[in-house]
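request received
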Amino acid sequence: MNNIFKFSFGILSTLGFAWLAFVVGANLQFGDLSPEAEYFEDNGSRPTDAELFPKDMPGLAKQGAEEYLALGCVSCHTQQVRLFTNKDAEGNKIVEAGIDIQRGWGKRASMARDYILQDHVMLGNTRIGPDLANFGLNEYDNAWLHQHLFEPQSLVPDSICPPSPFLYDISQKPKDGTITVSPPAGSSGDENKTRYVIPSIRANRIVAYLRALKQDYELPESPFVETDEEIIEPNATRIQSIPDWVNYPASPKSLVDISEQMSAGKEVYTKIGQGGGGCVTCHQPTGLGVPLAFPPLAASDWVKGDKDRLIKISLYGLMGEIEVNGVKYNGVMAAPGMPPGSLTDQQVADVLTFIRNSWGNSASAVSPSEVSEVRESIKDRTPMKMWTAEELLSHSKIEQ
Amino acid sequence: MKDTTEEVIDRSAKIVVSFFVASAGLWLLVAALLAYIAAAKLTDPFFLASFEYFTYGKVKVAQANAFVYGWGGNSIFASTLWILARLSQVEVRGRIMLLFAGTLWNLAITFGLLGILDGHMNAHEMLEMPTIVWPVLFISYAVIAFLALVIHRSRKHSDTIAPQWFVLASLIWFPALFLIAWNGLEINPARGTLPSVLSLWFGQSLIWLWLTPMALGAAYYIIPSILGRAIDKYYLAIFGFWCIAALAPWSVVHHLEGGPVPMWIPAIGTVMSIAMIFPIAVASTNFHATAFRDIGKVWNNLPLRFVIFGTISYTLSSYIGVIFSLPDVAKLTQFSIINEFHFNQRVYGFFSMIIFGMVYHMLPKITGKEIGKSAKSFHFWTSAFGVLILLLAYLIGGLTHGVLAQQSSLDWSSSVISSVQPYFIITKYAFVILGFSQLVFVINIWKVIFPNPFALFLASSNEQKGKTA
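response:
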């Protein structure tokens, strides 16, 4: 005890034993798990051409996991379904469904293999909210999930889950792509009016993540639990608790398509030559442009603001002096496409959706129908005649 | 002759210890504010809802980090340096380096907490601060720990006693734990639930192997030195120490009961948790058999009253922890707010109370100024009362939460969580009381450390005048 080196050696070796078990030993035991078939043949081999599980999440859902982590959702939500074995009167081992499965939080116990493809495993240790390991089994549509994320109390009156209004653009009137959120039950007064919200890309990511959370396949080590006990079907309880006055809007198309639009838009943005927009040459992959030469798209009000203006620029190009984020630029931008102005309505919609939701931008998606509307409204304009910033700004003033 | 040596040591420790105690106090207030926000958000989900910086999850995590690394870390540095210097009978050296490393430590935590609130949280328990601050924290810790070890190595007597073992163990275990966790989580990250096992192990071991030995060491130091009598059954202390060293790193994983990990992990955790009865019994016997010989003095001496409150709390909380690690009980309460009970019992009821006593014992000695008795007493009663209310609310609330959650016929939010809601309201008021109490503590210590801030200000402005002239 008196020699500090011997002492340190002693106390570090007690720690080292635990390290050997929980890190080295555990890694040897289950560090090499890989996706597996749902069951094995009787002879113990994997059925030929069996589908392997777990499957990887879509990219948008993986981004959603980052948002879920950043917002600290894991403080209240676990993601693990437990199953306890019990002994009956004769001492035989029996499997009870257990409360997690009875509550409809899963069809079987969660296993280590279920998590091997996740970048952030958030098992959690407190259930102030329900378990989310199988949240994707619930048949909610995107609008319901957005409404719940925006303000849980509008759907589940007793919920203490904090609202996330910062993930949404709120408008007072219904527009294309808005989701209707009713006031919480029992509330009154001006501030509790019905709101119409447009989800940001971050909100869409979280919703994609929540929908991707499901262990809806069997694993050899964990088959679905069969039980006589009463099991609440996923969705059932919470559907009951939704008051009938809730306006249940059809899922707006813009929400579903945003991930496809984002990837298609990115291609238009980066592709140079036939069928591409070639935007990347001037505005750069970072969306920051080139100082004093080409204006940035990131954090630009021109990009995040009025869609009409943006569509007009994409169809005819822009020239002359323009002020972006307080800096003046003077240049010429031909209409994107090769030849200029040749992008289709769909392509324009995709690339605009992409730039409006990249590099920290977060704004509503642009639909092809909006593009064709604008195209129709300015069809008398001289072909290839570029806009000036002044002209565009005066247009929007007249409209206002 | 002896007195003068102690005076010299205290004088050498003055600036460094004051710095750490003063910053610990500030972190305590930050943690108290965050604790209130988190508790208030549970009772009213619309409270601060429009600020993304203050989602419940972020605030909760930031509070735990401010509490453990801000308040815990700084007060551990202060107590470690002073106890080691006093027991080694050597002066504190490398004061500039200590102050520098301490400033770095505090800056890193500040950035870390801002990072959490700004959405750059890590998914690892008690390592949630963004990745970039950890190397800084580690280096500043290493500097402080090295200088503390230098004090110990140059000690006058080669024989060591119980407080030194515990304090040194706490000093050495933290960086070891950190390196193990950092290697397994960031440098060579494993897949699937392996990082979850490791991060849980780190988060719980941090409390068992960093905060706990520090507080036990402080208690082993302070009880005999105030009472002026030897620790009763002192020969057991070495057994208790090695039991903690051998068992604690294994016992913490019982929290994974039923989780998606191999069954041996929670099983070994449960067995080792039960075995923890031995070291708890040893510490309890040592402290309480000694203290209860002179209970009148314990009652009248405020630092000692704080310490004994802490040791009683340690004994009770550890036994309660053993009960809750049994699989049949864990099944019920595992995911309930009983976790908050364990955390607060350990870091508030036990660790912080002992450290309050330690600070009240140490500050008058190093600064030569007494802290008002009624102010200390007010702090004690509000703290004791607030902690009791808080812990009772979490205990009863946690049992309610756990038991009701087992009834699948009860709807989750309208029945289960609504029944726990009253306890959330109680904890909110308990945090108000505790925040008030901590404010009194900070005023108490700041008054001693900076007796006349105005004078200091005047002095510095005079200096500046002198420079300009």
